[in-house]
Amino acid sequence: MASRHRVVIVGGGFGGLYAAQALAKADVQVTLIDHRNFHLFQPLLYQVATGGLSPANIAAPLRAVLKRQRNTRVLLGEVINFDLERRLVILKDGTEPYDSLIVAAGSRHHYFGHPEWEQFAPGLKSIEDATIIRRRILLAFELAERCTDPEECRALMTFVIVGGGPTGVELAGAIGEVAHATLRGNFRSIDPAQARIILLEGLDRILSTYPPKLSAKAVQALQRLGVTVRTNTRVTDVQAGQVTIRCGDQTETIRAHTVLWAAGVEASPLAKALAQASGAELDRAGRIIVQPDLTLPGHPEVFVLGDMANYPYQGGKPLPGLAPVAMQQGRYAADLIQRRLRGAPSAPFHYHDRGSMATIGRAAAVADLGWITFSGLIAWLVWLFIHIIYLIEFENRILVLFQWAWNYFTRNRTARLITGADANEKRT
Amino acid sequence: MASRHRVVIVGGGFGGLYAAQALAKADVQVTLIDHRNFHLFQPLLYQVATGGLSPANIAAPLRAVLKRQRNTRVLLGEVINFDLERRLVILKDGTEPYDSLIVAAGSRHHYFGHPEWEQFAPGLKSIEDATIIRRRILLAFELAERCTDPEECRALMTFVIVGGGPTGVELAGAIGEVAHATLRGNFRSIDPAQARIILLEGLDRILSTYPPKLSAKAVQALQRLGVTVRTNTRVTDVQAGQVTIRCGDQTETIRAHTVLWAAGVEASPLAKALAQASGAELDRAGRIIVQPDLTLPGHPEVFVLGDMANYPYQGGKPLPGLAPVAMQQGRYAADLIQRRLRGAPSAPFHYHDRGSMATIGRAAAVADLGWITFSGLIAWLVWLFIHIIYLIEFENRILVLFQWAWNYFTRNRTARLITGADANEKRT
Description:
The structure is a homodimer of 428-residue chains. Chain A is an alpha/beta fold and 428 residues long. The first copy, chain A, contains eleven helices and 25 strands.
């Protein structure tokens, strides 16, 4: 047992978990370390933030997922650094030796040099983020119901989402649905459908990585849900209850109780730790520029995957921070480790781009499969099918499918709880 | 509208919600005030605390439940006092006038004069309590997996539940199931089935309000789940990681990472506020001793219900703090208000005791229907059926039923997430 090749995987996201699973039958000893006890299906996190699903529906306990994989153990622990010379992962409370190391610790929000904005404009990366955002959205309507000052009421009923990528679009669409369908008839003093939902994008169109035709379709679908899309608009300041924007030469301050951040991410600080230890280069988003085989320059035994890695692809453009990229990279690293052990030849990583999709509420989505683009109900059904398939744990698939069907017909969302230590916070 | 009789209900638990629903067709204006935006089905809270269900499965947004009841509005607000002279409910941020008032604000944990024990031995009353307890239980196993000191490991694997009433019994049974079934095969260094689970009861038997035969059945069922039941045992001190007990003349200190409190409750502090304003008497648990029609002495327009009320019943013994009592009292108060408005005669409140039940894990429960007692699989199925029926919202019924069926066959519990601000706390 002790003489077997030790593979340590840092991070139980798509990259780390798929790598671990791909090593199930390998003659290696796998240790998966995460600071959370569950794998999180991040693509559906916005549905938790808008009360459509419960956190547990999109989270799978890592131990449960890997319990039958006898060559693998799971450690709940916080990795803070690496000793590449001695081949040790340094935890907050211990060390873990490795022969091969896979680092896939993901990314976190990035406020473009304004970390102070975070308290006023939370981002969406963790279960806790999702319940905070859920609380803010629901509390805004509750406070508006009891509000007597028209200007204050208007600020409470204004929701600003910063960033027109998939997360921002999905979040804005879901808030539109909550306001127009879910909360209909729930209040006596306000009409939730009067909510202003504003999606801000710095570039000239939302979903800028998609073909322009799909961006236009997404704008139409968002408008039907009462979302105002403002492109070429940059945020210059965020404070409690207000956001200042610039569009061309115009500057404007929008009073909004709820401001949500979906504008930027940067790699986990572990990327910086690895770069310092190895001399590897970081890109502007803090990602490590990896070798063609996803390894750290000078350290073929160390793989860096997913949102932490800048893998120069088509024309030097890095691969996007999407689940399929991380999954394929995880499988590739697992395969390469096994090839090396048996002395087999290896090829550089190649990404099979099966396309990308974003959903914009009920029966509306956009899909770009490279060879074909489509939108509307069909895209939504494909989106739904793919997300159910990739959801970990069969029980969650059924729970999510049932709740989606229920939501489709009743427009109700039962997971709209205001919870947390400051569940009664009055202002953010 | 303004001239209609105004009924203000404080609290959206079983008493308040059932009162509001019973007023659906009445020619009155109903205002339901709660500091949470949801009704919580407390009898199943222990299943959230042990990872079997998600919080939203046992919580129903009050607005969604009451949205079609056009004579009713819901206010999210914190009631801090009452002005009985001017007939005003005093909120933290405003006042609300009433003609009839129903106060059903429930109860909270009581540490017998030792509030400092709460931080070491959390009780189970709210969603937040449940996620805190879930975190402590799961984290104990995680820390034990990485523990190298045998004594420390033993403390991590020791779970003490204080109080052998229904909540303590259900909690102990569920932890037994988690240790013996759910977590089987999940760890590599520890065997979760080696966990010590100790249920402490001050009296000479657990479930002391049930017939002695059922207490004995419950002990047997708990023992099968690996739970040690210690009766005639009182807690004399609780500190971080340890609990001191006395049994007869013997004093003993048990080292335990997880100590849970299910020993006592006291009425909401609003009972004291009402007593001070009206001169009503409080019992030792802080409950108001109400009139035969559930009103405050001298204030026939003020009803006090559920866990806040001491209603002297059979031989002066107060009714227990159970959901059916609160439900029936809520309906009674709603009916009495309507009778008064139409000048109809009224009778004192009468409790229809349909019995009580407690469950002790998979396929095991005890039931006392007064005219018959039974236990085992049949009792469990009846318990299951009744809880599904009384669960608010049809969607939740299906979600809970599915998760129970899934859990029954697979023994898995997917809602076992370690979440919260201090998700990585190392010691409590």
